[in-house]
Amino acid sequence: MLIVIALLTGLLFGFGLLLSGMVNPAKVQGFLDIAGQWDPSLAFVMGGAIGVGLVFFTLAKKRDTTLATHEPMRLPGNNSLDRRLILGSVAFGAGWGIAGICPGPALVALGAGSLQVIAFVIAMLAGMALFSLLQRKH
Amino acid sequence: MQIDLINFTPWSALAGGALIGLAGGLLALLSGRIAGISGIVGGLFDGRPAADRNWRIAFVAGLLAAPLLWQLVAPLPAIQQVAGIPAMMIAGLLVGLGTRYANGCTSGHGVCGLSRLSLRSLVAVLSFMGAGFVTVFIIRHVLA
Asked: Where are the transmembrane segments (chain B) (predicted)?
């Protein structure tokens, strides 16, 4: 059941990314370029996503068990505002600005087969593997 | 600031965003999992048991299949790259490491976290958006 839900929501998520314009690096940089010709589209993507997401997450938060897999509902409970959160996000934002893509759109864009995206995804996976390696050492 | 009215696509942005929110919301309500791409993919490197690995692989398979199915019905939207391969590798490394340290990216903190009204996610979003604005300012208006 979980596998089917994950596959279908992954597919839907991918369609949403394609339709939204988040998969197009030129459009993402156009949003991040507030000093130039600013394209506010991505604010609308966030607005649409959060508008719909709010309804579902509000329902999910009220439940003790998950609706389809019948497991205890455990949404993230970490509330700490630490250096890792901020420095990690700043590093991510810098990479997002350079490339114009973030992790989801990068995976979706793999299907379009550009060398730049393949290079980005390999480096991203290497960065994630490096993180796991460093965590295991500690 | 000047608004780029030629490239501005409010309706497809809103509709695409709504689909993203629907996907993330359904995954949370139905299974309690968070549709955060960096967390889903990064978790594959943590040596987790098979039960916690297979759903991640299935979600990623859905993402990878999306453009292939899309093309059966309509041509893919324009995808225009802005950086060369060396810059993309540096960016990928920053994104991979940064999202893991921060425990989330645009999807996990941006969509799911803000939908949960998490303060931690709001701080993450302000941090990565701020860094994105500064980085693009430097690339387009200082270096260029």
From this structure: 20-45, 57-76, 82-102, 122-143
